[in-house]
Sulfatase N-terminal domain-containing protein (Manganibacter manganicus), 516 residues
Amino acid sequence: MTERPNVLFICADQWRADCISTLGHPNVRTPNLDALAADGVLFRNHFGQCTPCGPSRASVLTGLYLMNHRSGRNGTPLDDRHTNLALEARKAGYEPALFGYTDTSIDPRGRHPNDPVLTGYDRGVLPGFVTPLHLPDDMGAWIADLTARGYNLPNGRHDAFRPRQPFDKPADRGFRYIPTIFPAEHSETAFLTDSFLKWLAERRDRPWFAHFVFYRPHPPLIAPEPYNAMVDPKDVALPVRAASVGEEKSQHPLLAYELDRISEPGRYDEHSPLDPVLAGDLEIRQMRAAYFGLIAEVDHHLGRIIKHLKATGEYDRTLIVVTSDHAEMLGGHHVWGKEIYFDQAFHLPLVIRDPRRVGDTTRGRQIEDFTEAVDIMPTILDWLGQPVPRACDGRSLLELIEGQQPTDWRDAVFFEHDFRTVKAQRAEGALGLSSDECSYAVIRDARYKYVHFAALPPLLFDLAEDPHEMNNLADRAEMAGTVLRYAQKMLSWRLIHAERSLTNMQLTSDGVFSRP
């Protein structure tokens, strides 16, 4: 490799961990991610730190748990004092480039109230990145491209994601079989990839660092042809769920609240006339089929990027990381989206391809050790030979990639969710809580999963006996000892990882002492 190699960090929005065909999924087709995993390492027990998009990306890009960065909702400002992956990579001589978005809500302190960056949760970009293509929620650059191609989009992206009309939908297909008004070659996924490949073409002889963000398979669950028809709904299994919505709601007040929240047509799935909670089986299967089709589209464009890197000789000097910010319930427990405590919302794909010879011994390996989204920043910095900031809550994965077993590796994962609704006070009103009481934290190992709420009843699942988390054991007398043990373990976890930037420093008569 050259003295300064390349880094390509790819994040696909809302991609479930099980949706990789090499893992045996019956509907998903991901030949390019499969090939990358065969030439790298696939982490099977990788978990995000929080949901939704902004908070999860804050954790990925700062290496911090939610309890430390505190940007808990889309729109909650991220404190300027935190360093991040882009700022640290600049110390190694890189100018990190963003294609897509970071969903960063900018710290308003010190900014004028009229600053446009304060008018939306996604208007900001994490400090340290340059933006060859910023594609926030309005997708302005892509909409401009579609308009230049002759599409009539007076309402911007709202019009771009309307289902094609007229369209003759077969009787054995659901609403989400109807494709987009544009063909696949004009999709936002294609547009983003085209732009990135043009940018790469100008950088063959100099090292680069890119954070590339696919919007898909994030809803709306509408796919361009041919991806809308790639999976037949009759071949799609129904999600695991309780026999009725009422029975599902009885598990926990937050689950009942979330099912009510997303039941309004269009709230989860833009332009859809369906109540996703009460939709019929055909429609549920079709929605899932559309999601799988969107993953296939992302995989196709991932393949284009890898093909370019191989053709230019850059593949063997580029660290490639592919993951997601959070996952998707996909109808499990009757829920859609990601704002609930089940594994389906937090369990993520992670594939890392290390081009160095030291990575040859583990190529094609699937690693079972628990890993977390906060590990990505330390891994990339470690690979670049840069120090990992003391504040980071994650650990480098390089030893695992190199075939070694790190000492004292975690035996559980920790994740959180802040579900307050600061302006609307919807969650607070529905659940009888103050905003600061609207949160929970989860500790999950190979056997049990414990969910601790600030002001609601706890949950405990025996994952060995109940992998789909259908039966809450927290209120059973015989499980009191297990609940106590996991509550204590979570408390210890939080104490160890509480904000610690300066905690290993001491001012002495000899000056500042700092322990690595």
The CA atoms of residues 233 and 410 lie 40 Å apart. The chain has a mean pLDDT of 97. Residues 281-311 form the longest helix (31 residues). Residues 6-235+287-410 form a domain with the Alkaline Phosphatase, subunit A fold (CATH 3.40.720.10).
